[in-house]
Design brief:
The complex is a heterodimer of chains A (210) and B (201). Chain A is mainly α and 210 residues long. Chain A folds into two domains: 88 residues, Orthogonal Bundle (Rna Polymerase Sigma Factor, Chain: A); 74 residues, Arc Repressor Mutant, subunit A (Orthogonal Bundle). Chain A contains ten helices and no strands. The termini of chain A are far apart. Chain B is α+β, with helices and mostly antiparallel strands. In chain B, the strands form two sheets. In chain B, strands 2, 3, 5, 6, 7 and 8 form a six-stranded antiparallel beta sheet that branches. In chain B, strands 1-4 form a two-stranded antiparallel ribbon. The N and C termini of chain B lie far apart (56 Å). The chains are: A mainly alpha (210), B alpha+beta (201). Chains A and B meet through helix 4, helix 5, helix 6, helix 7 and helix 8 of A and helix 2 and helix 3 of B.
């Protein structure tokens, strides 16, 4: 998330409370530091600056991994392992300005590894994944939303991992096909075909009688 | 499977302006967009920042630290029985690692060996080993801790050759054997422990 969304004075106040933020503020005051600059600082030995990259990108990575694995705990493990691995191999990131897709690629590989080690290779929905926040204003509508989401999650879990990955990257994470190609290593036409099949399966699942 | 009009796919893929679609297709475009939004909504898992930075601050393993880890971390000892002379030497050196004298043990085929998996997992409710020899299936090869001292072990007859494996603790935590000595990339950016079993004969 970084500090680009708050005012400089607010950021400095935060820095007084948390020394980890101080380094970020010193650079970001007045302008937003891009990912490539942060990567350069980490590679120069500022380990704590890696926290800036984590805060900027972990929400999407955790959401992606949750949808891939169907488990919040497994997603947190996959993302944490992926980020540690990313730090260790940061020097091999060829395009630091595009570190977001590089991080997605590492986490996607971690998710595949988790899935490969499961007995069925399928996702489990035993534990809560990403639950919508209920505001309590319309219980009937909330119930309907929850039921619809549960059917979607079941349908998503039944997709082959590569189709699930393609759909989530495209429609949940909002990546372009070129970015998806960098994440997955697959060609754009292949990714489009996977996304198309996934769309049809999910739309069909919603049309089924509960 | 529901067929989606190719123009809807094209619009969703950014190849076609959705406004140019016939009105009856607008609902299909919205339906897919709503699916993405529904799956994106909500609260993601808690931040892993502290956990990751703590791992990065951990000092590199020195020889002294490795010795300390040997005493405190979960670990396993794997014994591969090679030719008969190796079996005799291993039995003489470490009876605790092998089948007790007098125990004839299970009959081994000409192309089989015995591997002993040992790990220290205090407080674990269950420990098992999964690997290429059991198709990574849980519930097939459990380790036992009969005296409840936190040391779990299992003797397994395996076909001669190379086997990749990991421990599964409490049915959910996958642990790479830290002292396997040999590791092999799992194809997804991490490593599995590698066990080499040689035939007894």
């Amino acid at each position: 998330m970084g500090l680009s969304h708050i005012g400089t004075s607010t950021a400095r106040a935060a820095a007084r409370r948390d020394p980890r933020i101080a380094a970020e503020v010193s650079v970001t005051a007045g302008q937003v530091e891009d990912d490539a600059d942060v990567v350069a600082r980490v590679l120069a030995g500022e380990t704590e600056a890696f926290g800036i990259l984590i805060r900027r990108h972990e929400a999407g990575l955790l959401r992606f991994a949750s949808r891939m694995l169907g488990s919040r705990d497994a997603a947190a493990d996959a993302v944490a392992e992926g980020l540690v691995r990313a730090y260790r191999h940061l020097a091999s990131c060829r395009e630091p300005a595009r570190i977001r897709t590089w991080l997605y690629r590492i986490v996607a590989n971690r998710c595949k590894s988790h899935l490969a080690r499961r007995p069925t290779g399928d996702v489990s929905l035993d534990d809560a994944v990403v639950r919508p926040i209920a505001d309590g204003s319309d219980p009937a509508a909330e119930l309907e939303r929850a039921d619809r989401l549960a059917r979607l999650e079941r349908a998503l879990s039944r997709l082959a991992p590569e189709k699930r990955e393609a759909f989530v990257l495209k429609h949940v994470e909002g990546l372009s096909y070129d970015e998806m190609a960098r994440v997955t290593g697959a060609r754009v036409p292949t990714l489009k075909m996977r996304v198309h099949r996934a769309r049809e399966a999910l739309v069909a699942a919603l049309k089924e009688t509960p | 499977m529901t067929e989606i009009d190719p123009r809807v796919h094209a619009a969703l893929d950014g190849e076609l302006d959705p406004a140019t679609l016939p009105p009856e297709l607008h609902a299909e475009v919205r339906a897919v967009a709503d699916i993405g939004a529904a799956l994106a909504a909500g609260t993601p898992p808690a931040s892993v920042e502290d956990r990751v930075l703590a791992a990065l601050r951990r000092p590199a393993h020195t020889p002294v630290r490795r010795v300390l880890q040997w005493l405190t971390d979960p670990r396993s000892v794997t014994v591969s029985l090679r030719p008969v002379y190796t079996l005799a030497a291993a039995a003489a050196l470490a009876g605790v690692l092998l089948v007790a004298p007098g125990d004839t043990g299970p009959a081994l085929g000409a192309e089989e060996g015995i591997a002993q998996f040992v790990g220290r997992f205090p407080g674990a409710r269950s420990v098992e080993v999964v690997g290429s020899f059991n198709d990574w299936r849980a519930g097939v090869t459990p380790l036992a801790d009969d005296d409840h001292d936190g040391i779990w072990n299992a003797n397994v007859i395996l076909p001669a050759g190379q086997h990749e494996y990991m421990f599964v603790v409490d049915g959910e935590r996958w642990v790479v054997d830290p002292l396997a000595g040999r590791y092999v990339a799992d194809g997804f950016g991490r490593e599995n422990a590698l066990l080499i079993v040689r035939p007894v004969k």
